[in-house]
């Protein structure tokens, strides 16, 4: 229809430029149009007075506009409008026909497989039509690009699709070959995170249009496990959350089961009700288990009618750390809280509470020490303090610490990244003079200015909304049971008014005491570390007043102390931006290296010792960042499919600064099983960005008419007349008809 | 002058009100004690868990013993005295019956130990003691340190034994004292076996932390009761050798500290009596301090 009216296909208009072939200058055309319009206006004005019933002014203007437009159009046609467009010279250009033969092209969601659909299209008119005008080169596209002589060589067996890589190669060939256009037959399922800007600019620079033909349905009856987010590292026996993204089409309201496994061990199960939005995130809790590397696999139980059952599974690597986290607990007076807190965590495999208790005015009692000399002089020096991951201050007045020790505590949190917990007590917080620097900076609350904030009266703890969502306050594996348990916990033996939370602080637990509601457990991040206040010394009643089998008090303290130290970094922190490698082995190791006082160390020798899935090992040297001191990085290629473990070690001379463990995983072919609907958006965008067109397979025949108009390869510029376009004549006729109809209606014929 | 008098009289009036509230109540009838142990260890309501109001009972030796001025000030630690049932015995007044052995030395020794702990350690102690009965709901669990005197005369009811065991299983610490010789030991064991039928009673070795929490008590001697003032004999009923014994939990912590053939209660009670030898009170307080600190740290 378009070509019937406009003579040429749309691509001629989108790629060409409008010209006037008439020999008279353009300004004459403009002058003629103005003169004609002026003359018509004068005639209308003169005749208006002679009419028996005078015409309204607006109606006169409308008639004048229609007449002027018709005259202007006729004058324009006299100036011979035409379009100038570049087109490929016949038989001198190459058209690259790129056929995606990855596994997703083997899906039978049309008449046969997607690849069969592409072959049918090519075998029909398309390939013959192209060959009649161009040299045609056929390529197969999977993880790489390869030339094929015959369509029979195409098999849907490539484990992944890297469209950008293939197009870059063709653009590179275009430097030496007259490649005039690219025809890409694909479902648009790309496994290399889209088309990068470099590839697009290279194609644009060479004016190489990529015409895309899409295969596959844009919606399939399928449930897909789209994402699985778990922490890369965790403490042994930690309670963790997995965020699982699920998408579905055609199964709204159906139930399926989500299972987390580590090998043959089931970590958690969770029933999923598929929502009508088509996209949902499920939170599943599981226990990290013992120290070691876990391959946490999430599996959605396939529904019988699913088109694709291979996208119901994802695996992530989790490094579980079993090394002891040491917490220094400084207590100013013997208290039941001290005893019961120590007892609560003594069996925790990853916590070691080392305590200094002031029993008398001049004596301290140490517990949990690693050797008889540890802490024998009381509060430690900076290096000894920084060997701890957490610090707890009990009922001990601020004045007990020297200004240097107080500053050390600030650096412990801010620079070293340790956790600091303040407990309530008769010598704590406001009653212990904590309004001074740096405690007032470190505290997550603005403490009252007055004393006597500590009361030996009962207080009832209750979770806030944030506390109900937090894993820190979970005192039972089952969330609902945990919430119910908080409602029956015994009263706290005492409480302290700790003022109001600072902006950024989170109140997880509050308490009703003395007719008021006060914050009880408040947390905040500070610098590289974190701080918290637990505004009581009376949670020991949670142990003594509950049945001996009840473990809520122990669980609470374990969770709180684990939270305190779980994010405390070691001297070497290893990371990678891509822990999940899909169809590629390229990985970057990064390391943040600190010395014994946790200042950035720029003169260390840093290396990563990598152990592969087959037990093979390799060592990679990491180079220092020229700009940011203490940062090191290095690249490596993981050649095999599977899980890897890298130990990043930093040394300064003969002294070992520290080490950290990093896990990552390479998975080949799995990505191809996901997002299997036709990615129309990507194909459309790719065509639009490069000056090509997107076609659905059923209207791909138009390609033959449009592909010639390209500025790549060997081209010739053509000028095509427009003055004789049927559309123009129709327009003139329409204008005149409209005028006649209006005149009839208004009675001014 | 009038204002000053008013200000001075205010604390006195408060103390009077408290004294009236804490007036002596009669001893519970040992023959009608509730003895249903079936609900021991079960979850209870917050109301049942609440501490009972302070009350005073008539003591074996003392009646209307004066309260300290700060008697109403709460503390982190207080002297919790276990109100057990006694065996049937002959009274010195004639007649046979179950007497109030648990009140021996009460409340004078209790208050002296509280004062000593306050002076010698950083523990915030309450001045007055708290008599604790197994029959008072879950009150016992509010006091993780519990003391019983003259346990050579105790005859625990099923409820008292079950409650004491549950108290210890939850993390409480029990100290008993002032019983002598083999006969009283047998009586003690009879009830203790109702508490822990299967846990052995062992001598505490010298290197146990309980003898080193504050004072190093490697050299201990027999702490005699007040009878020494007249008899000049340190032992009673043939209990010549003082034994510091204990029942340990599964993690090697002492939960029952048994002071046999000694009278620490008297050493605290009579610490201010000039005729009672100072050396007994000196060691008695040191043992008391170490045991309390141990109970609050282990």
The structure class of chain B reads alpha/beta
> Strands of the biggest beta sheet of chain B: in what spatial order?
4-1-5-6-9-8-7
User: SS-based structural class of chain A?
Assistant: alpha/beta
Mean pLDDT of chain A: 92
Relative helix content of chain A? 25-40%
Largest interface by Cβ-Cβ < 8 Å: A-B, 37 and 34 residues
* Arithmetic mean pLDDT of chain B: 92
Largest sheet of chain B: 7 strands, mixed
Helix fraction bin of chain B = 25-40%
Characterize the largest beta sheet of chain A: strand count, sense, and whether it forms a barrel.
9 strands, mixed
Q: What low-confidence regions of chain B span 5 or more consecutive residues with pLDDT below 50?
A: 1-11
What letter string, H or E per element, gives the SSE order of chain B? Answer: HHEEEHEEHEHEHEEHH
Number of helices of chain B: 8
Description:
- The complex is a heterodimer of chains A (749) and B (298).
- Helix content of chain A is 26%, strand content 33%.
- Chain A is built from 18 helices and 38 strands.
- In chain A, a hairpin with a 2-residue loop joins strand 26 (506-513) and strand 27.
- Chain B is globular and about 50 Å long.
- The model of chain B is unreliable at 1-11 (pLDDT under 50).
- Chain B has helices at 2-21, 46-49, 108-120, 158-169, 181-195, 228-231, 264-269, 278-295, and strands at residues 80-82, 88-90, 96-98, 130-132, 145-149, 173-179, 202-203, 243-248, 254-260.
- Chain B is built from 8 helices and 9 strands.
- The N and C termini of chain B lie far apart (53 Å).
- The A-B interface holds A 332-336, 338-340, 342-343, 346, 357-361, 363, 365, 367, 426, 456, 458, 460, 488, 490-491, 493, 537, 540-541, 543-548, 550 and B 41-44, 46, 49-50, 74-77, 120-124, 138, 141-142, 144, 166, 169-172, 213-214, 251, 292-293, 295-298.
């Amino acid at each position: 229809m378009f070509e019937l009216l406009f003579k040429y296909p749309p691509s001629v208009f989108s790629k060409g430029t409008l010209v006037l072939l008439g020999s008279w200058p353009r300004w004459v055309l403009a002058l003629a149009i103005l003169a004609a319009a002026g003359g018509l206006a004068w005639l209308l004005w003169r005749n208006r007075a002679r009419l028996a019933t005078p015409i309204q002014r607006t109606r006169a203007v409308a008639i004048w506009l229609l007449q002027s437009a018709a005259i202007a159009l006729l004058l324009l046609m006299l100036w011979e409008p035409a379009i100038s467009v570049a087109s490929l010279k016949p038989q001198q250009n190459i058209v690259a026909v790129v056929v995606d033969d990855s596994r997703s092209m083997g899906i039978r969601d049309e008449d046969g497989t997607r690849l069969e659909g592409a072959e049918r299209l090519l075998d029909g008119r398309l390939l013959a039509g192209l060959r009649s005008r161009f040299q045609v080169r056929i390529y197969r596209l999977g993880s790489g690009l390869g030339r094929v002589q015959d369509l029979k060589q195409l098999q849907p067996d490539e484990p992944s699709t890297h469209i950008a890589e293939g197009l870059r190669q063709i653009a590179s060939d275009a430097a030496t070959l007259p490649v005039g256009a690219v025809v890409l037959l694909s479902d648009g399922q790309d496994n290399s995170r889209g088309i990068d800007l470099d590839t697009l600019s290279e194609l644009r620079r060479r004016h190489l249009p990529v015409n895309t033909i899409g295969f596959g349905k844009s919606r399939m009856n399928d449930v897909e496990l789209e994402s699985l987010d778990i922490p890369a590292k965790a403490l042994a026996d930690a309670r963790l959350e997995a965020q699982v993204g699920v998408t579905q089409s055609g199964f709204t309201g159906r139930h399926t089961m989500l299972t987390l496994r580590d090998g043959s061990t089931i970590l958690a199960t969770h029933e999923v009700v598929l929502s009508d939005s088509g996209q949902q995130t499920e939170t599943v809790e599981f226990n990290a288990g013992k120290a070691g590397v876990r391959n946490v696999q999430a599996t959605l139980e396939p529904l019988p009618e699913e088109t694709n059952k291979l996208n119901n599974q994802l695996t992530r690597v989790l490094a579980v750390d079993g090394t002891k986290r040491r917490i220094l607990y400084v207590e100013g007076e013997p208290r039941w809280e001290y005893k019961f807190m120590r007892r609560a965590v003594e069996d925790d495999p990853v916590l070691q509470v080392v305590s200094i208790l002031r029993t008398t005015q001049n004596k301290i009692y140490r517990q949990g020490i690693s050797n008889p000399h540890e802490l024998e002089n009381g509060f430690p020096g900076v290096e000894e303090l920084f060997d701890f991951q957490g610090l707890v201050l009990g009922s001990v007045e601020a004045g007990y610490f020297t200004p240097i020790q107080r500053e050390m505590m600030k650096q412990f949190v801010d620079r070293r990244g340790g956790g600091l917990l303040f407990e309530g007590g008769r010598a704590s917080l406001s009653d212990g003079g904590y309004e001074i620097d740096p405690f007032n900076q470190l505290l997550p609350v603005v403490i009252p200015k007055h004393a006597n904030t500590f009361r030996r009266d009962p207080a009832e703890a209750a979770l806030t909304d944030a506390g109900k969502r937090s894993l820190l306050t979970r005192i039972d594996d089952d969330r609902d049971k945990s919430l119910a348990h908080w409602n029956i916990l015994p009263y706290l033996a005492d409480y302290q008014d700790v003022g109001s939370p600072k902006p950024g602080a989170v109140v997880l637990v509050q308490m009703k005491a003395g007719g008021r509601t006060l914050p009880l457990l408040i947390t905040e991040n500070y610098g590289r570390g974190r701080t918290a206040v637990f505004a009581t010394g009376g949670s020991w009643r949670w142990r003594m007043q509950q049945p001996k089998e009840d473990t809520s008090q122990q669980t609470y303290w374990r969770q709180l102390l684990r939270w305190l130290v779980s994010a405390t970094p070691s001297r070497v922190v290893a990371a990678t931006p891509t822990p999940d490698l899909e169809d590629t082995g390229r990985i970057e190791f990064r390391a943040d290296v600190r010395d014994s006082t946790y200042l950035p160390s720029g003169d260390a020798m840093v290396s990563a010792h990598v152990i592969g899935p087959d037990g093979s090992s390799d060592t990679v040297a990491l180079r220092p960042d020229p700009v940011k001191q203490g940062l090191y990085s290095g690249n490596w290629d993981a050649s095999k499919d599977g899980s890897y473990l890298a130990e990043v070690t930093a040394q300064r001379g003969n002294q070992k600064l520290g080490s950290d463990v990093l896990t990552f995983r390479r998975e080949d072919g799995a990505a191809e099983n996901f997002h299997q609907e036709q990615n129309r958006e990507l194909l459309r965008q790719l065509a639009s960005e490069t000056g090509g067109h997107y076609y659905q397979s059923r209207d791909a025949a138009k390609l033959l008419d449009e592909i010639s108009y390209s500025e790549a390869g060997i081209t010739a510029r053509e000028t095509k007349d427009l003055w004789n376009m049927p559309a123009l004549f129709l327009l003139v006729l329409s204008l005149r008809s409209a005028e006649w109809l209006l005149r009839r209606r208004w009675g001014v014929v | 002058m009038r204002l000053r008098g008013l200000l001075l009289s205010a604390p006195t009036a408060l103390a009077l009100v408290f004294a009236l509230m804490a007036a002596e109540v009669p001893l519970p009838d040992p023959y009608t004690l509730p003895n249903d142990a079936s609900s021991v260890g079960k979850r209870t309501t917050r109301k049942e868990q609440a501490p009972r109001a302070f009350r005073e009972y008539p003591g074996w030796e003392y009646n209307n013993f004066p309260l300290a001025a700060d008697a109403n000030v709460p503390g982190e630690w207080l002297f919790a005295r276990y109100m057990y049932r006694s065996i049937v015995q002959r009274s010195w007044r004639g007649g046979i019956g179950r007497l109030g052995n648990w009140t021996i030395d009460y409340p004078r020794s209790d208050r002296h130990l509280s004062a000593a702990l306050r002076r010698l350690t950083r523990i915030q102690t309450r001045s007055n003691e708290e008599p604790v009965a197994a029959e008072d709901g879950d009150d016992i669990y509010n006091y993780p340190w519990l003391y019983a005197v003259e346990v050579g005369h105790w005859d625990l009811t099923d409820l008292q034994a079950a409650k004491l065991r549950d108290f210890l299983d939850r993390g409480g610490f029990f100290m008993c004292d002032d019983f002598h010789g083999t006969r009283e030991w047998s009586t003690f064991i009879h009830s203790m076996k109702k508490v822990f039928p299967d846990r052995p009673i062992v001598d505490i070795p010298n290197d146990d932390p309980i003898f080193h929490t504050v004072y190093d008590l490697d050299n201990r001697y027999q702490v005699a009761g007040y009878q020494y003032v007249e008899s000049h004999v340190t032992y009673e009923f043939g209990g010549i050798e003082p034994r510091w014994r204990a029942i340990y939990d599964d993690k090697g912590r002492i939960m029952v500290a048994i002071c046999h053939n000694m009278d620490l209660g008297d050493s605290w009670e009579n610490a201010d009596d000039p005729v009672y030898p100072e050396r007994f009170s000196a060691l008695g307080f040191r043992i008391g301090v170490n045991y309390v600190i141990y109970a609050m740290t282990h």
